[in-house]
């Protein structure tokens, strides 16, 4: 066993700049495709026998756009006088049916379903039911499936709660962000502070326990006291799964403008003592409450891991994603559906897929890199599993990268796996970037291609040269970072 | 109100901005004082949806209870304040105008006849001036100009 576990203070920093990514997409560089249907016909054999896959269903609507949200969303009015929700759900169902009629997906085994967005829960109860019923009509769903509905507590009335509890949806994910009204207003969340706790308790009262909630830390005006109150409420609610996200100010958002105009307080330095204390206390409190951080920033009680992530990233199966702004991955390609809801509806009415951007075919090497990058969200690579997946040895395929990571004290090697050290966890994203393909660095051209949601952030990372994030290959340690650089944070315009 | 007089004012600005950004500023009721110079504080009770209320404290007056009357997300909302001397309604709407967005703020006051003179002299001028000042402040925040 090779173990190097040293602290930053002892040795300096392993990289010249720390990268922080809330979400990983790989490979980042994609290019526009003029005729998505023709591309699909020429590249993907939909007549082949299907295997395990997951299904992502995107609902592109929100009631309001959170002020620093980098995701695509279209505002949907509650009175919906133009019937946009019905039109969209009709199109979505046609799209799901079209995929479901292909041999690849009709013979495959659907392991996990996730309705996200936007706001999945925004749909009327009858429309959620239509979508759920269509999934089970069109696909063979595994007996131990998990079906998550993501959304916002604001959307839940008794009718919707009753339907979900009795439906095939068996997991709920709520974007809580905070339980404090002053913070929810500042970040522009659509729900009121009491909504989240009320809805969680209503579900629990009906016996529905598998609930995830997302909390954010270091929002403008956030303090350690407020954070402790949120963690206390979390403990009271006794949900089995939660995530914590560092609040970021994304470029081109209204929050960035409000900060620049002095209307909203700038969040604290993420490397400063308060934010580090927030993270540390979240982990400590979570452990005291019986949660484990089983993947980066994800906490659960035993048996409540997020299985959608598990199937996509750890088992590494195909992902079929439907709806505007979604990205699929199968047969060696990533491809995306653009964010234009009206165009999506029009294409679905013509029984055509809307495929707008694609990657080149992922070489065997890139497919391996992609697996490693996602698997490292769980901190480790199991040699045997890797070999069962790709037929080659992880330690041989990535000997140079592994040697460098060991020298920097970021990973340790055991008989059966490579595992991140504590220092590796601190520099988690940089460690992941070590497995980026050399051909993807300095890719500024992809900045001008259509990118949405966090793919744009990933492209910004790749637009730098490798040395920007990772330094020179033969240099092990660097002076302490004095100026934090994050691709998705803008300090000025 | 059978014996009353109506006051009405509207202000419009056209700005290079995203409609969802304007909407985000509107629905953050607690931060209205950052663009409306006449407001000392405001506090939304519950969600921003029709039927819910917020407490609005003007710079020069006691707190008022305001009811949100209409909401069309991403497009418009209206609210209403009942006062001893009448009702004040405000309406905020936006619409795309080519590549830009036209934002309109309106205020309509239905004032009991016996209070008209005092309202016209002491309150209405301030309401009118706040309308355009608030609109310009929003345009300054959201605009790319």
What form of chain A results from the Cα inertia axes? globular
On the 0-100 scale, what is the average pLDDT of chain B? 95
Number of strands of chain A: 18
What is the third-level CATH name, the topology of the largest domain in chain A?
A: pyruvate-formate lyase- activating enzyme
Q: DSSP strand (E) fraction of chain A? A: 15-25%
- Amount of helix of chain B: 10-25%
The CATH topology assignment of chain B is Alpha-D-Glucose-1,6-Bisphosphate, Chain A, domain 4
Describe, in plain words, how this protein is organized in 3D.
The complex is a heterodimer of chains A (493) and B (145). Chain A is of the alpha/beta class and 493 residues long. Chain A folds into two domains: 1-28 and 363-493, Orthogonal Bundle (Arc Repressor Mutant, subunit A), CATH 1.10.10; 31-315, Alpha-Beta Horseshoe (pyruvate-formate lyase- activating enzyme), CATH 3.80.30.20. In chain A, 38% of the residues lie in helices and 18% in strands. In chain A, strands 10-11-9-8-7-6-5-2-12 form a nine-stranded mixed sheet, with helices on both faces. In chain A, helix 5 (125-138) links the parallel strand 5 and strand 6. Chain A is globular and about 60 Å long. Chain A starts with 7 loop residues before the first helix and ends in a 23-residue tail after the last helix. In chain A, 47% of the residues are buried. Mean pLDDT of chain A is 92; it is low at 482-493. Chain B has helices spanning 19-27, 116-122, 124-142, and strands at 4-15, 39-45, 53-58, 64-72, 76-83, 86-97, 100-112. Chain B has 145 residues and is of the alpha+beta class. Chain B has a seven-stranded antiparallel sheet, with helices on one face. The model of chain B has no long low-confidence stretch (mean pLDDT 95). Chain B has a single domain, classed as Alpha-D-Glucose-1,6-Bisphosphate, Chain A, domain 4, CATH 3.30.530.20.
């Amino acid at each position: 066993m090779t173990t190097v576990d040293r602290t930053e203070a002892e040795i300096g920093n392993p990289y010249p700049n720390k990268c922080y990514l809330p979400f990983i997409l790989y490979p980042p560089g994609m290019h526009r495709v003029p005729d998505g249907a023709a591309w699909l016909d020429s590249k993907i054999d939909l007549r082949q026998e299907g295997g395990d896959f997951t299904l992502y269903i995107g609902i592109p609507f929100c009631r309001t756009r959170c002020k620093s949200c980098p995701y695509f969303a279209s505002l949907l009015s509650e009175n919906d006088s133009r019937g946009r929700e019905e039109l969209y759900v009709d199109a979505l169902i046609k799209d799901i049916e079209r995929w479901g009629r292909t041999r690849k997906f009709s013979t495959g085994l659907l392991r996990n379903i996730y309705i996200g967005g936007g706001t999945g829960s925004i749909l009327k109860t009858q429309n959620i039911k239509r979508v759920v019923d269509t999934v089970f009509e069109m696909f063979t769903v595994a007996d131990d499936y998990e079906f998550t509905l993501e959304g916002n507590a604001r959307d839940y009335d008794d009718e919707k709660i009753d339907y979900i509890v009795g439906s095939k949806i068996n997991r709920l994910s709520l974007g809580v962000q905070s339980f404090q009204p002053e913070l929810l207003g500042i970040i522009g969340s659509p729900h009121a502070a009491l909504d989240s706790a009320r809805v969680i308790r209503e579900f629990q009262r009906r016996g529905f326990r598998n609930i995830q909630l997302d909390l954010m830390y270091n929002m403008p005006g956030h303090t350690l006291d407020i954070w402790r109150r949120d963690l206390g409420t979390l403990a009271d609610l006794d949900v089995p799964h939660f995530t914590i996200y560092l609040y970021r100010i994304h470029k081109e958002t209204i929050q960035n403008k409000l900060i620049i105009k002095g209307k909203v307080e700038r969040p604290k330095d993420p490397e400063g003592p308060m934010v580090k204390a927030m993270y540390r206390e979240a982990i400590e409190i979570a452990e005291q409450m019986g949660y484990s951080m089983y993947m980066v920033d994800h906490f659960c009680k035993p048996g409540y891991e997020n299985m959608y992530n598990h199937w996509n990233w750890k088992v590494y199966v195909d992902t079929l994603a439907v709806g505007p702004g979604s990205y699929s991955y199968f047969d060696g390609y990533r491809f995306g559906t653009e964010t234009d809801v009206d165009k999506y509806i029009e294409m679905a009415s013509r029984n055509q897929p809307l495929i707008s951007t694609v990657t080149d075919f992922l070489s065997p090497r890139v497919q391996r890199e992609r697996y490693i990058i996602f698997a490292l969200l769980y901190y480790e690579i199991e040699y045997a599993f890797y070999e069962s997946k790709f037929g080659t040895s992880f330690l041989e395929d990535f000997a140079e990268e592994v040697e460098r990571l060991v020298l920097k004290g970021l990973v340790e090697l055991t008989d059966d796996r490579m595992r991140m050290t504590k220092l590796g966890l601190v520099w988690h994203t940089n460690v992941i970037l070590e497995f980026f393909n050399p051909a993807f660095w300095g890719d500024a051209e992809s900045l001008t291609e259509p990118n949405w949601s966090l793919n744009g952030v990933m492209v910004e990372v790749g637009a730098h040269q490798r040395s920007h994030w990772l330094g020179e290959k033969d240099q092990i340690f660097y002076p302490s970072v004095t100026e934090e650089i994050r691709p998705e944070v803008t300090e000025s315009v | 109100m059978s014996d009353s007089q109506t006051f009405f004012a509207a202000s419009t600005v056209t700005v290079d901005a995203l409609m969802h950004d304007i909407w985000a500023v509107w629905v953050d009721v607690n931060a209205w004082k950052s663009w409306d110079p006449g407001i000392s504080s405001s506090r939304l009770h519950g969600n921003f949806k029709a039927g819910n209320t917020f407490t609005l404290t003007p710079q020069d007056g006691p707190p008022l209870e305001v009811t949100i009357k209409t909401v069309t997300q991403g497009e418009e909302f209206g609210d209403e304040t009942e006062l001893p001397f009448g009702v004040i309604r405000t309406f905020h709407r936006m619409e795309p105008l080519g590549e830009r967005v036209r934002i309109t703020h309106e205020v309509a006051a239905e004032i009991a006849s016996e209070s008209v003179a005092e309202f016209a002299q002491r309150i209405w001028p301030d309401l009118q001036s706040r309308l355009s000042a608030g609109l310009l402040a929003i345009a300054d925040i959201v605009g790319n100009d």
